[in-house]
């Protein structure tokens, strides 16, 4: 788990000129791609959402505090090309508690328990503050695993299987290659001081399970 300086502040806009190849927002000239990232954030404009909806079938929905993520419209505004693997360094209840705490400043999209059950706390379309790096937050889906880096017994067969099905679905949804460049540990995020998932996480086994799960791991 990781606090980050990537807060929920939104850009102030004084004008928006649409219909051409560029738009002016707050005095800055923006191209069509940037405009696509911003239009829905204007007052009164927001992508429709369904309360309690999950992106992975069977996941339990427990919403994180809005202070721990930024509303977005991924992948339309930010391309998603990474999955970041975390370890909670604590139990399930404590992870959920801090992700629901607005003072914590961080939360992941998903939490996977030792029995393989999945809880979703942030929609994938939103930017979770989980990686400690703004660019990685915007481009990735964060998955926490209940346990401790130094305890190999944390990573059960059921956890590997449940997490692999989840990651397979995420990768299929966004066209993410299932390899170590695109499925990474928190320790590999630039500038982090975290070590998770640590030396006991079996990457070869995990990626093999993700590939085996494939696109049929769960519906979009």
Automatic annotation (TrEMBL):
Gene3D superfamilies, per the entry: Peptidoglycan recognition protein-like (3.40.80.10)
Protein name: N-acetylmuramoyl-L-alanine amidase
All copies of domain N-acetylmuramoyl-L-alanine amidase, residue ranges: 69-198
Native source species: Streptomyces tropicalis
SUPFAM superfamilies: N-acetylmuramoyl-L-alanine amidase-like
Listed InterPro entries: Amidase/PGRP_sf, Amidase_domain, NAMLAA_amidase_2
Pfam family, one: Amidase_2
Source organism phylogeny: Bacteria, Bacillati, Actinomycetota, Actinomycetes, Kitasatosporales
SMART domains documented for this protein: Ami_2
């Amino acid at each position: 788990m990781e606090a980050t300086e990537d807060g929920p502040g939104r850009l102030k806009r004084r004008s928006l000129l649409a219909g051409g190849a560029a738009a002016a927002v707050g005095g800055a000239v923006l191209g069509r791609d940037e405009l696509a990232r911003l239009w829905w954030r204007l007052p009164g404009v927001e992508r429709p959402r369904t309360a309690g909806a999950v992106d992975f079938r069977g996941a339990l929905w427990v919403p994180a505090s809005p202070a721990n993520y930024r509303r977005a419209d991924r992948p339309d505004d930010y391309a998603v090309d990474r999955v970041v693997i975390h370890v909670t360094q604590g139990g399930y209840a404590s992870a959920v508690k801090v992700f629901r705490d607005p003072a914590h400043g961080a939360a992941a999209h998903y939490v996977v328990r030792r029995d393989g059950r999945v809880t979703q706390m942030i929609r994938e379309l939103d930017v979770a503050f989980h990686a400690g790096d703004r660019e990685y937050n915007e481009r990735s889906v964060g998955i926490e695993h209940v346990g401790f880096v130094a305890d190999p017994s944390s990573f059960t067969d059921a956890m590997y299987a449940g997490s692999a099905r989840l990651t397979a679905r995420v990768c299929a949804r966004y066209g993410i290659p299932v390899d170590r460049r695109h499925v990474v540990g928190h320790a590999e995020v630039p500038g982090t001081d975290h070590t998770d998932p640590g030396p006991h996480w079996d990457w070869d086994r995990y990626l093999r399970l993700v590939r085996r799960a494939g696109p049929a791991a769960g519906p979009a």
